[in-house]
Specification:
Blueprint: E1 2-6, E2 9-13, E3 17-18, H1 19-23, E4 33-37, E5 40-42, E6 51-52, E7 57-62
Parallel strand pairs: 1-7
Antiparallel strand pairs: 1-2, 3-6, 4-5, 4-7
Protein name: Sulfur carrier protein ThiS
Pfam families: ThiS (PF02597)
């Protein structure tokens, strides 16, 4: 098991995994989501290739419309 931080909360996951796989475990609408790993924004087209590893800090930001 490895530990990552997601939105300030420590989370335990089985092993390093792609951002895409990690997102399949959370309940957020993917069309309105921005992902940051270790303070770097991850473009949607790189979700499958970007790995989340032990000690990484992940921020998931849900975009909300308003005015």
């Amino acid at each position: 098991m490895i530990h990552i931080t997601v939105n300030g909360q420590r989370v335990e996951i089985e092993s390093p995994m792609s951002v895409e796989r990690m997102l399949n475990t959370v309940d957020v609408p993917p069309n309105y989501l921005a992902v940051e790993v270790n303070a770097n924004v991850v473009p949607r087209e790189e979700y499958a290739a970007t790995m989340v590893n032990d000690g990484d800090e992940v921020e998931l930001v849900t975009l909300v419309g308003g005015g």
